[in-house]
Amino acid sequence: MTLNFIIMFICLFIPSMMLLSFGILTLLQNFFSAPYVPSSAKKLAAALEELGLPQAGRFIDLGSGDGGITLMAAKYFHQSSGVEINPYLWLFSNLRRLFHPKRKNIHFICKSFFRMKFHDYDVMYIYLFPELMAKLEDKLFAELPKGSTIISHTFKFPNHQPERTINKHYHIYSTK
Asked: What is the pLDDT of residues 9-66, one digit of tens each?
């Protein structure tokens, strides 16, 4: 084997395998959970301004995708976390975090949110399909501290009524 062959192998094979695994993972994710659909950070920022939530709180975004919402929320909260099961999106989010001025207060977790506990969070943002909303509903309302705020983009929980709706898209819930 020559050195040229080894270099060609490294330059072609490894990126090809990474791309293939990304494609397979994305397909599997679309079958078993919600697909990646980015949210508008500007629109959510306007909704957060209208809500006037205390900045000392801890924010979490379930299904944080590319991290845009989590990074934006760092402006409004003491700690901002995002949970993403897709390792490629999680890695991309962490790369974006490195360039954020409040990077020390931003955390991304690569994990299924069904395996997490939410006792420490004051504000939660979710943009999930109705099937996942129904599966998570009891868990979230049981685990989030009393008085926590849940902001759901577009879809509503089946057994709880929102306290209010902002801009027709953000349904606001409070834990009792």
From this structure: 677 666 666 666 666 666 555 555 566 677 888 889 999 998 988 888 999 999 999 9
pTM for the whole thing?
0.81
* Tokens of residue 175, six digits: 């834990």
Which residue, 120, 126, 113, is CA-closest to 172? 126
CA distances from 168 to 14, 30, 150, 154, 175 (A): 46, 26, 15, 8, 21
CA-based end-to-end distance of the chain? 68
> For residues 101 and 2, what is the distance between their CA atoms, to the nearest angstrom?
46
Beta bridge partners of 132: none
Q: What count of other Cβ atoms lies within 10 Å of the Cβ of residue 73?
A: 27
What are the backbone dihedrals phi and psi of residue 2, each rounded to the nearest 5 degrees, phi first?
Answer: -100, 165
**How far apart (Å, rounded) are the C-alpha atoms in residues 152 and 133?**
9
Q: CA-to-CA distance for 104 and 79, rounded, in angstroms?
A: 9
